[in-house]
């Protein structure tokens, strides 16, 4: 199915690997030009090379901007990328690594501010910088990568639960503003357990604490998922690309859960 977005420009954050890379890859496969962002310049350059190699026979442009998107300076670097579209992004995929787990009793104000800045305020700044231009051009897609913890909070992920829920509430309002009539949709994409480097590190730590092998821990965890496995970054990217498509024009303000059926609620 042609998603109707070839030739558009997209900003994809946290795109050097994992779910962010999966989203960038899916968009490039649809003929979308991308500006990819992450903090590690070397890893990001490798990601850009991979994307450029598969980009519609060289017709797709891939620009890499190594910067901390959670800072004003990082956002300025992204928006001023040489040869890039400036503020004229048609698609924005916000993505930042989740804050660390722990006991809420041990988190001070600085820990909370850091989590809120990365997982709530930064996406809002990116939305604020791009949506009016999108509305003027009559097309815009914003996808915020959040977490399944927004639907089913996890006790040790209180920083993430709080910050991402704040973003979810904000999006619920702004997505239903006059922007919707201007052809701009804003949706959240909520990942469950996907087979990424981040998950591998989490599993390694959990397995060591429980005294089991990584393989045993993985099997036990996957057995609790109705799909019987972890998701892949490619699957996640395909969902993201659909939310960015012309076909998804009537979807806005939604929280799209991709977790293999792990969430057991009705709504």
Task: Provide structural commentary.
The structure is a single chain. The protein is globular, with a radius of gyration of 18 Å. Strand 2 (33-38), helix 2 and strand 3 form a beta-alpha-beta unit. The chain is of the alpha/beta class and 267 residues long. The chain has helices at residues 18-29, 41-54, 72-79, 109-137, 158-174, 197-210, 214-223, 233-243, and strands spanning 9-13, 33-38, 62-66, 91-94, 140-145, 184-191, 255-258. Helix 4 (109-137) runs parallel beside helix 5 (158-174). The protein folds into two domains: 9-194 and 233-258, NAD(P)-binding Rossmann-like Domain (Rossmann fold, 3-Layer(aba) Sandwich); 195-230, no CATH class.
Give a quick rundown of the structure.
The chain is of the alpha/beta class. The protein has eight helices and seven strands; from the N terminus they run E-H-E-H-E-H-E-H-E-H-E-H-H-H-E. The protein has helices at residues 18-29, 41-54, 72-79, 109-137, 158-174, 197-210, 214-223, 233-243; strands at 9-13, 33-38, 62-66, 91-94, 140-145, 184-191, 255-258.
């Amino acid at each position: 199915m042609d998603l109707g977005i070839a030739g558009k420009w997209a900003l994809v954050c946290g795109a050097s690997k994992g779910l962010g890379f999966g989203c960038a890859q899916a968009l490039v496969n649809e003929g979308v030009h991308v500006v990819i962002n992450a903090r590690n310049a070397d890893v990001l350059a490798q990601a850009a090379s991979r994307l450029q190699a598969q980009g519609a026979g060289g017709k797709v442009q891939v620009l890499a901007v190594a910067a901390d998107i959670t800072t004003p300076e990082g956002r300025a670097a992204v928006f001023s990328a040489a040869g890039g579209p400036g503020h004229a992004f048609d698609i924005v995929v916000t993505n930042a690594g989740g804050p660390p787990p722990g006991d809420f009793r041990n988190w001070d104000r600085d820990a909370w501010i850091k989590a809120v800045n990365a997982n709530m305020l930064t996406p809002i700044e990116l939305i604020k910088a791009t949506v009016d231009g999108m509305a003027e051009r009559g097309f815009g897609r914003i996808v915020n990568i959040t977490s399944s913890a927004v639907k089913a909070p996890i006790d040790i992920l209180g920083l993430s639960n709080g910050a991402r829920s704040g973003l979810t509430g904000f999006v619920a309002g702004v997505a239903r503003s006059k922007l919707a009539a201007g052809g701009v949709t804003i949706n959240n994409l909520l990942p469950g357990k996907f087979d990424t480097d981040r998950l591998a590190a989490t599993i390694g730590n959990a397995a060591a604490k429980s005294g089991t092998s990584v393989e045993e821990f993985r099997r036990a965890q996957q057995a609790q998922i109705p799909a019987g496995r972890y998701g892949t970054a490619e699957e996640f990217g395909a969902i993201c690309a659909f939310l960015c498509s012309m076909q998804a024009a009537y979807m806005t303000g939604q929280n799209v859960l991709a977790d293999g059926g792990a969430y057991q609620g009705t709504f």
